[in-house]
Each structure stands twice: as C-alpha cells, then as structure tokens.
Amino acid sequence: MYFQTKDVQQYQQNKEFIDTAIVPLLSLDFSEDNIVKSSSEAEFLMALTAFVEQQFRGRLMLLPPYSYTEQTKREELVLALKQNIQEGGFKHVVFITCDHYWTKLQDELDVIWLPAIPIESMDKDVKKRILEEQLKQLIPILSSKWYQR
Amino acid sequence: MSNKKVSRRQFLNYTLTGVGGFMAASILMPMIRFAIDPALQAKAEGDFILTSQKIDELTDVPVRVDFSYEQVDAWYKSEVSEMAWVYKEGDKIIALSPVCKHLGCTVNWEGGEHKNEYFCACHAGRYEKNGKNIAGTPPTGPLDQYEVSEKDGYLMLGKKIPNTLA
C-alpha cells in the first residue's frame, strides 16, 4: 500500500493484515560535489522501496520518505516518528536507508541498510535484476519479523 | 450545353446554396466526428503486448514472463512492468496474473516450499496451478487470467480477464 487515499481506505478495512510500515530514510546533500550522488541514492532507494511495495503490498504500507540534510539529521525525531507510527496501529516499523549512520541505532530501530547502487545509467532489464537481487536480501529480514511472535 | 441564360437571381441562388452548404458541412463535420469518435479509434493490435517469451519454450510448468508498457497518467508518463505466470496445458497457453486476490501482493510459483502451488508470502495465501484459490487460505477468488495471442512464435499478452479455469 502507498500512503494514498485509496490505499489508506483499503488499509482501514484490513488493519489486521497490514501490520508493517516501511519508511525510507533519505539523506539529501545539496553541495556542488555531492548533489548528483545524493540524487542517485534517492533514485535507488525510491525504486527499491517501490519494488518492495509491489511484492508485499498486502502486508505493508510504504510511507513517504523521511528526508534530512546533515544539519537536520535528528535521531530523536526518527525515534518519535517510529513511536507515532506504532501508536497508529502498525506493529512493525521498518526503516530502509542507504545512509550508514542509522545502523548505530540498531537496538532501538529496525533499520535495513543497503549500499546505494547507481541504477540511473542501467538499462531496464539490468535495473530490474539488480532490484530483484536486493529484494532477495530484504525478504528474509521481513519474514523473520513477520513470523516471530 | 443549353443556351438558356441563367438569370442573375438564379445565379445568386445557386452560389449561395453552394457556399452555404459548404459552411454548414464544415460546422457539422467535426461535430459528427466528435460524436462517433470511439468508433473511429484505431485498435492497435487489439492492445496486445509482445513479450520475449518463445511459445515453443513453454511447458506445463509455469514460468515467469515479464513485460512492460507505457502508461500515461495526466502529464506523468511511466513505464509499468508487469509479469505473468505462463504454462501450457495441452496446446492451450494459460497466462495467470501474479496479483494475489487477497490484498494485491505478488504470488510465486512454488514459493515458500509449497509444491505445485502458487504461494503468497504476505499472509500465506495459496493457489492451485490453474489459479484456483485453496480454501482455508486468505484469498477470496482465483487468480486473474491474461488474454493470450501469438506473433512470429512469441507470446503476446492482452487484457486481464476473470479466471475461466477455476
């Protein structure tokens, strides 16, 4: 499910099935040297999370990315966000990011860190294969959360 | 040619009728075209999408066939990738949509070690090979089917239709 009216209405009727929220944690960098790299990371993260959504749309809701710059990066805000989402009824809140920084919060947050792959220059079949490979790494992490009770 | 003279009145009558007719036609034509527009739309190959799957490579075991098409959503053009599970039953080609009838996840053939079934990892929904949902699992109906066609030995997929097998 996406965070869109139609999907959210469906979510409300199937709350017992859709118990996982996915939040992309997206780092933005506008400096001359890094802006291209930053956009490439964003492209990868958005493509990957959309692919996860397509595969598991009946179990999870993909939220809009939480974006921050070096100056607006605040652990306490992300922790608060997680809490608010949980209060809203999602049992699992999973953060997906290409920013290694968040892995140090492993104890408090479910963070999946993946190195960004520059997919922008790839043709569509290669891109698809790469995303599938990445997804294969995510599946065991998600199902281990879903099947531990 | 007759030598009868055409009077000024007659001449004006003829020319006005002629010109008036043209004007009426130029107003009415677009209106009529507009009214019957759907009938004039050319049907491009019946909306079938060519895939890279060779027909003679299909067996009775479902294989994954990816295909994509362009979708225009207001000003936003996007490439939509879809896939189908395709197998042969005798001479008939069956193409099933992988979209789970429960909440829309993607189902996998023999996923999660369920032999000879489609499996949905989200809530353990299961389907038989022909798409029939297995009672006692969350899905409420059978998997949709795609219309199939063939071009130069390659598989073409068309519209999604309700399952006709289960």
Automatic annotation (TrEMBL), chain A:
InterPro entries: DUF2487 (IPR019615)
Protein name, UniProt field: DUF2487 family protein
Superkingdom field: Bacteria
Automatic annotation (TrEMBL), chain B:
UniProt cross-references to CDD domains, sorted A to Z: Rieske
Record's function text: Component of the menaquinol:cytochrome c reductase complex. The Rieske protein is a high potential 2Fe-2S protein.
Domain (Rieske): residue spans on this chain: 84-157
Family statement: Belongs to the Rieske iron-sulfur protein family.
Pfam families (alphabetical): Rieske (PF00355)
Transmembrane segments: 12-32
Presence of keyword Metal-binding: yes
Single GO MF descriptor: monooxygenase activity
Protein name, UniProt field: Menaquinol:cytochrome c reductase iron-sulfur subunit
Record keyword Repeat present: no
Oligomer status and interactors: The main subunits of the menaquinol:cytochrome c complex are a Rieske-type iron-sulfur protein (QcrA), a cytochrome b (QcrB) and a cytochrome c (QcrC).
Keywords: 2Fe-2S, Disulfide bond, Electron transport, Iron, Iron-sulfur, Membrane, Metal-binding, Oxidoreductase, Transmembrane, Transmembrane helix, Transport
